[in-house]
Amino acid sequence: MTMKRRTFLVGSVSGLTLLTVAACTPDSPQPSPSASPIRSKTPEPAAFVRTNWAADPFSRGALSYPAVGTAADDREILRRPIDDRLFFAGEHTAETAPATVQGARASGRSVAFDVMSIAEPGERIAIVGAGIAGATAARILVDSGYDVVVIEGRDRLGGRVSTLNGDDWPFPLELGADVISALDSAAVLAELADANIDVVSFTLSQEHRTVAGEVLEPSTVGQDAVAEALEWAAVQPVDTSLADALLDSGAANVDASAGAAGVSQVDLLENYVASDVVVGTGADADELSAWFASIPVLGAEGDEMVVGDFESLIVGMIEGITVLPSSTVSGVTLTDRGVSLRLARGESYSADRTIVTVPLGVLQAGAIEFDPPLPFSHRGAIAALGMGHRDKIVMRFDTPFWSTDASAWSVVDGDTDFPLWINMLPLMGEPILVGLMAGEAAVRLSEFGDRELMQAALVSLEPFVDPDLVSRSASPSASPSPSSASD
Q: Which domain holds residue 77?
């Protein structure tokens, strides 16, 4: 039996959808979040935080990905300077390791040397964006004698590197980028070490369960099918989505009959796509290019997780450099003499050259008006690449309700928008769980309130509840004060 095409073309329809319908009933009063009970056998957390990069106007997504129709040179095109005055940097322009912190850092180094090859000593360089790409470029240029100002829309530094420090959390909590891939990671890890920022090994041990909580034997069905589909797509005359490649290649023609614990190979394939492909890229399978997709291996050997305040690395890099915080750039005008930057609050700033490091999603939204318009090649590359969505919900519990020591959890054949959970107990010795939502689900869930999101998250964790650790007669725990974080 073959997998239905619709499986890959839409996100999962979970209990959240039902909650939305109920919440939108016209004649029903809206209960306050504090009065709404959590209906789950999973205990409520003592602390809770969520991210919402999808709704953040300064990012409009989490990471770039190769969308269907992307060209091989789109990222290289974005690295090309315009009139030797306007430059772009960021993970979406990275030559190697795009969509990663190390890719963003490398792009910042590259653009700094590109500017230095053209600019005269002492020129004024404006850098738009204080993420790791902008900070890296700023540090190199300042140390080389240039007059640099960093213009940042947020009231903090770091961009999509964002760290939460607070009494509710036993260690600095990374709300944005947190995992340093083993690929091209040496330079970033060296800088973290020099700054005395702690990392831990992020080699994951995965456990898959049924909705009933039964542990499943490891399987490579999903991984093998995706690999087969990508191999087939590589020799096709035109690009296609991963979803279409799975179906048209026949790779998705796996057994749909129920096997052990009632789980079929179709279920295993669906789970792999949701928990590895979509979470890894931020893109749904019907949007991801089968020509250029590089399916990430979550928790590969050599990966490291930052647990010691990643944001402080960027703050340290920009120390001593002029920064204009809370200053959103709304317009960039190229003139014969330089670049004029228009701020949203009405001021303007002039520079000899400008480096724009805002995320791809901001460029795609047209949040910055360029005069004259960007060359067609640049506009085409911006439109062709995809901006993926990935968000987190992080919960700390007073005591663990689970007994498994696996560091990555997933429910097969489960109707959930949280396809992957990271268990921080074996990694950090703390009962903290990190739920990941990605693709269409992340965009949809960005509209949900904290209480509804927590409800769905706790329900999705029920297969991992150890009844011996949770007393059915215990009174409900006090609800935490949820907080949102998107930067």
A: 65-160+309-385
